[in-house]
Amino acid sequence: MSPPDSLSSAVKPPPSAAESNRPARPPAPRWFIWLGWIALAGYAAFLGANMTAVAGGADSSGYLNSARLFAAGKVRTELRVPPEFSGLELKRTHFTPAGLDTFPIHQDLAPVYPTGLPLHLALSGRLLGWKAGPLFMQLLAAVAAIWLCYRTARELGLDYALAGAAAVMLAAFPVFIFSSIQTLSDTLATTWTIAALLLAQRGRAAPGWAAACGAALAIAVLVRPTNVLIAPALVVLLGFNLRRLAWFVLGGVPGALWLGLYNHHVYGGALRSGYGDIFAAFGAEYFAPTAVHFTKWLALFLPPVVLALPFVALACRDTRRRELPGLGLIVAAITGFYLFCAFSHDGWEYLRYIMPAVPALILAALLGVEALARGWGARWPHAFRPVVALALGLWAAGNSWHWTRNLHVLYVSIYERAYEEAAGLVRARVPDHALMVCCNISGTIYFYTGMPTLLFDSVEPEEFVRYAALARSAGRPVYAAVFDIEEEDSIRRRCPGVWTRVASARDIGIWKME
């Protein structure tokens, strides 16, 4: 009888040359593990102290309105139109709040955003309530992304110190903080992308992991459809093995079926979305300014050497294994897509569109550090990796401290809470059956009240006069909730009448038509 070692080697093929060159992964020391958990808890407390989950602007109100529909077992709802307007030839867009829309195939109101984030919010809202639930979900997504980034780095064979640096660089990235402290899809899209990346590496060991990778990809696509672009990278990481790839595809089937059925029912086609013709916003002329914009802000928000280190890994045979092209494909696919988008270079905040690619960029850079450690850094075998990891972590933290303050990233919660305060004033000062004139706050009014919303930016003065007359004749008061900068275009120009300001929430005024 063959000894166990012989039997094992007969069943399991020997590792490839590339896999045999993978660096050993001694376990992290206990003190480092405890330090990591303490740091993660402190980071969670920092995010929690600055986090808000408010149905504010079009994005956050759109996601939360969609989530509440899912929690109620619905995907569409009736348009809120006062019954006294039933005899008019209405334009449905006049009463459609931000984040929701009407579609030709039905008369209902439906969300314009993908279903991934709302489904997460609906589950947390049902379990923990609509105040604590969304906050918990947002916090969990951010913390999970940091932990998954560390675990993925370890799965790549990186030293525990370098894996810790990966987690620190992602956590400190100002755009990650920006997207994590409000109800946006970017952090959750990043979390599921990293999960798919981690599972793809493990998928080479067992078909169950490959199926889980497919499921993680499906959820990532439900959160943000452009995450489908990482599928080729996951195939590279899984390896071209038909059995593994079959399990990978099977894992993604339930998510794909849900996406197709939902799109068909709500938008009229499995491949349609609430965004309409998104490709109208893309063009070759946006490539150059967006490339400069992305490069500039990535170099400011991350240690700039991160942009060069992946090429160091590419030049070294030991780190030029399948993981590096897999990471490179993720960065190239997601960043390359948004390089051609008209509004990707409008501000630093728009780097959130490429957030799912940032962990892959960081991990590829750390493979570059590993390449250096195996080269001239080998003369300091015990010091090189931890010293470089510490330097990169401190550099990223310093950048984050500077830019988070200068760009007022943490003011987001203040801006968003103004919407909630305004909604509270509306509930307290405005009759429940009032007609609310609004625009940017329309999604907020729809979420926190049962009032119909009339969007001033879509009506002409003569149309408003007709609406107001019918409402008042039916005993329905007319109020407005508008930002100070909207006053001139709303109650002064498009909505003529005598208006009195009755309350204010920061720069949002509540007005009554006399």
Describe the overall structure.
Helix 10 runs antiparallel to helix 14. Strands 4-3-5-7-6 form a 5-stranded mixed sheet. It has 2 domains: 58-69 and 78-105 and 413-513, no CATH class; 117-410, no CATH class. With 514 residues, it is of the alpha/beta class. The N and C termini lie far apart (97 Å). The protein is built from 20 helices and 7 strands. Helices cover 58% and strands 6% of the residues. The longest helix has 40 residues, at 116-155.
Lay out the secondary structure.
Blueprint: H1 4-11, H2 17-20, H3 30-50, H4 58-71, E1 100-102, E2 109-111, H5 116-155, H6 160-172, H7 174-180, H8 186-202, H9 207-223, H10 231-238, H11 242-267, H12 287-301, H13 309-315, H14 323-338, H15 358-374, H16 384-406, H17 412-429, E3 435-438, H18 442-448, E4 453-455, H19 461-473, E5 478-483, H20 490-494, E6 499-505, E7 508-513
Parallel strand pairs: 3-4, 3-5
Antiparallel strand pairs: 1-2, 5-7, 6-7
Helix pairs in contact: 3-5, 4-5, 4-18, 5-6, 5-8, 6-15, 6-16, 8-9, 8-10, 9-11, 10-14, 13-15, 14-15
How would you describe this structure in keywords?
alpha/beta; 2 domains; 514 residues; single chain; 7 strands; disordered N terminus
